């Protein structure tokens, strides 16, 4: 039993790694998805094995969807939404440029959905030659109004990437956080320096987000949770930054710091590859 659990966890880590690294192409197999209800008109489309999330606001005139996973997941997303609405997807918001959040853009655009992202995320997609570029780009703040409901988009600064957008559903006091907040040891903090991420600025960006008025949070990866858990995660980003800085001052080696990150912050090879050298340069 225990062995099987560990083996499954291992697979989950591998899949999570593959997921976060795949910027332009999806995994060969579609993920198994299920629907988590937050309210009658707000749902999370949740990956079962590696818990990645999309969030859907249902209105009489159509759906506002936050993140569209990999292209290979498209049909399954549509099938999940069919369970709760027969209306079309009107807007897709990419919280950032990574393929597990924006990989479905082309297919969504073929269905006449407008894709929205931050200017920075869009630029990252241009640089990465990703298909399905957003047609609407925001700098700091935007609102999407549809059929008497609304979604508020905010881009506060650097965190997981330089283009992270969070989406607030004010009527539901619910925030879709993207990968700026990942919940649980299986999905540790990933700082994508190549995508403009920053260990130094992450905490301050979260402070801005935490000023918004909400109770429920849909993390980029991990189960739906509370603002309190997001605040705890904010503190862990500060601890992480301070621990790295301390060890640099103590002239610890890169290997020592990598060991610490594995042990104390559950970093895997993927997180070290994406984040360690950038963090060492930034926190010196
Ligand atoms: Zn990501």
Please tell me about this protein's structure.
With 284 residues, the chain is an alpha/beta fold. It has one domain (2-282): Metallo-beta-lactamase, Chain A, CATH 3.60.15. The chain is built from 9 helices and 13 strands. It has helices at residues 2-21, 74-82, 99-102, 105-110, 119-127, 199-210, 227-249, 254-265, 269-282; strands at 33-39, 42-47, 53-59, 62-66, 89-93, 114-118, 136-138, 141-146, 149-154, 166-169, 174-178, 216-219, 225-226. The strands form 2 sheets. Strands 1-2-3-4-5-6-7 form a 7-stranded mixed β-sheet. α7 (227-249) packs antiparallel against α8. The N and C termini lie far apart (45 Å). Mean pLDDT is 92; it is low at 1-26. It binds zinc ion.
Structural descriptors:
284 residues; alpha/beta; Metallo-beta-lactamase, Chain A; 7-stranded mixed beta sheet; 6-stranded mixed beta sheet; 9 helices; 13 strands; globular; disordered N terminus; binds zinc ion
Outline the low-pLDDT stretches. Answer: 1-26
Number of strands: 13
Q: How much helix, percentage-wise, in residues?
A: 25-40%
Identify the CATH architecture: 4-Layer Sandwich
> Could you state the order of secondary-structure elements as H and E?
HEEEEHEHHEHEEEEEHEEHHH
Q: Can you tell me the CATH class?
A: Alpha Beta
pLDDT averaged residue by residue: 92
Give the radius of gyration: 18 Å
Report the span from N to C terminus. Answer: 45 Å
Largest sheet: 7 strands, mixed
Which molecules are bound besides the chains? zinc ion
What would the CATH topology be?
Metallo-beta-lactamase, Chain A
Structural class: alpha/beta
So how many helices?
9
Strand content: 15-25%
The strand line-up of the biggest sheet is: 1-2-3-4-5-6-7
The total number of structural domains is 1
């Amino acid at each position: 039993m225990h062995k099987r659990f560990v083996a499954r966890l291992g697979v989950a880590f591998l899949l999570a790694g593959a997921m976060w690294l795949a910027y332009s192409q999806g995994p060969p197999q579609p993920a198994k998805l299920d629907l988590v209800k937050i309210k009658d008109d707000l749902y999370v489309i949740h990956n079962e094995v590696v818990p990645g999330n999309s969030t859907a606001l249902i209105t009489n005139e159509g759906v506002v969807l936050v993140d569209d996973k990999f292209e290979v997941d498209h049909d399954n997303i549509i099938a999940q939404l069919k369970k709760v609405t027969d209306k079309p997807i009107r807007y897709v918001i990419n919280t950032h440029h990574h393929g597990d959040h924006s990989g479905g853009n082309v297919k969504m655009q073929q269905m006449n959905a407008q894709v929205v992202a931050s200017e920075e995320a869009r630029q990252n997609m241009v640089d990465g030659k990703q298909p399905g570029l957003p047609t609407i780009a925001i700098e700091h703040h935007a609102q999407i109004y549809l059929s008497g409901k609304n979604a508020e988009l905010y881009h506060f600064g650097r965190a997981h990437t330089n283009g992270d957008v969070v989406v607030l559903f004010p009527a539901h006091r619910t925030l879709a956080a993207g990968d700026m907040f990942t919940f649980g040891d299986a999905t540790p903090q990933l700082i994508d320096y190549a995508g403009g991420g920053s260990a130094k600025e992450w905490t301050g960006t979260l402070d801005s987000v935490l000023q918004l008025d909400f109770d429920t949070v849909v993390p980029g990866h991990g189960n739906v949770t509370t603002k309190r858990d997001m605040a705890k995660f904010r503190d862990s980003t500060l601890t992480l930054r301070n621990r790295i800085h301390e060890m640099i001052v103590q002239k610890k080696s890169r290997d020592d710091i990598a060991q610490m990150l594995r042990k104390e912050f559950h970093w895997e090879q993927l997180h070290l590859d994406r984040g360690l050298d950038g963090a060492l340069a930034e926190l010196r």
